Amino acid sequence: MLVKTHSWNVSPQEAVALQRRLAAQVITEDRLDQIHSVAGVDVGFEEQGKITRAAVVVLRLADLSLVEQAVARQPTRFPYIPGLLSFRECPAVLAALEKLTVMPDLLLCDGQGVAHPRRFGIACHLGVLTDLPSIGVAKTRLVGQHGPVPDERGGWIPLVDKGETVGAVLRTRTGVNPIFISVGHRISLVTALHYVMVCTTRYRLPETTRAADKLASGSGK
DNA sequence: GCGACAG
DNA sequence: ATCTTGTCGC
């Protein structure tokens, strides 16, 4: 699939300025068609972090069966800085997405969407550059506060930062730590929660994320 | 100045 | 994220 891009050869200061500019393009309401396929994206590292390995898996929403998958490896060229994760991981992820022969209808990204200091986490960045609806699925919090999360599967509570609801803390499995969901692009929070639940069957994380994680860290191709 | 801090 | 063995619990 074709994706837009911009220079990644930027300093942390320039990256912040770029986020502020691109954040204006994020759409936080539903602008999506019928969803038939969902892509999971994740990144792993090799050789002590020297190499970034991005993986993308496309699953059929109806039964979560595999449609296509792709991997891209590149030298790592940006450090991990909280708030600037996308500048470290996006280049490899975009390379993996370009290898796909089918365009997924929705993107589930490993990390935050608008639950970010400048409301532009990696899910927003990937959503804007691909122009695909996207959702941020994170295992831990970056910003925001929240009250107690309901114990039952499917229960959730708003994640609030500076007086603004930026996401939700969702219990995907009873008795298991919740995950942090936020809008990436072209989707509302409630719709995002719906699709995350549809993709989550018997584990804490969505099958899309789990499949992408295996591809990103495993030794396969 | 101190503490927090996606992956 | 990654480096790493066994261990606790359902």
From TrEMBL:
Its cofactor is Mg(2+). Mg(2+) binds at residues 42, 110. GO terms for molecular function: deoxyribonuclease V activity; magnesium ion binding; RNA endonuclease activity producing 5'-phosphomonoesters, hydrolytic mechanism; single-stranded RNA binding. GO terms for cellular component: cytoplasm. One of its GO terms (biological process) is DNA repair. Pfam families: Endonuclease_5. The keyword Kinase does not apply. It is found in: Cytoplasm. It is an enzyme of class 3 (hydrolase). It catalyses: Endonucleolytic cleavage at apurinic or apyrimidinic sites to products with a 5'-phosphate. InterPro entries: Endonuclease-V. It comes from the Bacteria. Transmembrane segments: none annotated. Keywords: Cytoplasm, DNA damage, DNA repair, Endonuclease, Hydrolase, Magnesium, Metal-binding, Nuclease. Belongs to the endonuclease V family. PANTHER family: ENDONUCLEASE V. This is Endonuclease V.
